[in-house]
């Protein structure tokens, strides 16, 4: 069996850090070793305590190794709508995003773009993604197939949408059920893949299609559910107008059985106390998408308010409403959103969030999100000196917290030296030495 030891400074979290001084919440090794066998981490320790017998040594000193980043909400068919000029969400969808997504009816395009998508993720240090496909089954098929070939953990699903979109982008309640069902049977639980039942949002699904989503959800309790909730005021008004039986936007999804512990609700910005209570009761997971929320002018996610209600918030890029594939840049913008709400995001909590925290939100903390022995060997190698500006800042860094905050505020793909997926290096460049 392939056996390798990665030597570096190592950081992995045991639980969410409560304060910047909560050093019991993580393990940090100044000279650590991660033993990887067959795509799994089998030991984590000081380097000189790892048995080197038969192992290839990969020396990443002086860089910092962490678990690979987890992106809990982004759109596969939106790589080429990033940086589209629009006033707000619904214009952006109608003018750029829906026309672009029509191209994903083409299996050849989907196959090419699936490679590009997973390359972009891993070059930014992301090793697990929860992605929306387009309405076309072929989009989810291509993404599953490419992730499977790379042994990469991926959650995706074909979007269900049957109204308020171009005809070329609409399915029907029956076809959306049939296509989703076939994809679940083919891919859910295959290797590292899981299916997410994906009604796009309340505006683009008729009640009949919501019934179909409800049936799929009931038949597949271990499939994820992903949709969008309360991102923007015009979206909320139209959603409630289209589903007059519901008392509010959250209630639309509740009525169709779509709120549960493995439901991921993108944005969740403008919510009443009643809605927050309903989400908390269901254990559903709001997903904070800071670069997107600022870019589309959607609003400021109220992290502290949701947490106070007992919710577990995930964090994500939301490509292509989001503007960067980098979870570091996502943290940078997330920090600023929280600042505007007079909330503080300290770097230990931030790096927990994009690793173990997002794994917890997905119920996958025993598989990914840490460097613990027995978990999957998804790792990122980070360099806080990656650019001249970062190196200058790092001259004044006093400790690990300063290093992490430099990465959080100034880092992007240039700070990612290497990414390992199931123990395999993804970047073409060789590590510092071997
Ligand atoms: N709401 C429904 N679809 C979308 C989408 O593709 N992006 C964002 N940001 N919000 C949505
Ligand atoms: Zn989205």
Automatic annotation (TrEMBL):
Entry similarity comment: Belongs to the metallo-dependent hydrolases superfamily. ATZ/TRZ family.
Gene3D superfamilies (UniProt xref): Metal-dependent hydrolases (3.20.20.140), Urease, subunit C, domain 1 (2.30.40.10)
EC nos: 3.5.4.3
GO term, biological process aspect, one: guanine catabolic process
Described purpose of this protein according to its UniProt entry: Catalyzes the hydrolytic deamination of guanine, producing xanthine and ammonia.
Pathway: Purine metabolism; guanine degradation; xanthine from guanine: step 1/1
Residue ranges annotated for the Amidohydrolase-related domain, each copy included: 64-424
UniProt name for this protein: Guanine deaminase
Coiled-coil stretches: none
InterPro entries: Amidohydro-rel (IPR006680), Guanine_deaminase (IPR014311), Metal-dep_hydrolase_composite (IPR011059), Metal_Hydrolase (IPR032466), Metallo-dep_hydrolases (IPR051607)
Keyword Metal-binding among UniProt keywords: yes
Name of the top EC class for this enzyme: hydrolase
Listed GO MF terms: guanine deaminase activity; zinc ion binding
One of the Pfam families matching this protein, by short name: Amidohydro_1
Entry GO terms, CC: cytosol
Catalytic reactions on record: guanine + H2O + H(+) = xanthine + NH4(+)
Co-factor note (free text): Binds 1 zinc ion per subunit.
Entry keyword set: Hydrolase, Metal-binding, Zinc
Cofactor(s) recorded in Swiss-Prot or TrEMBL: Zn(2+)
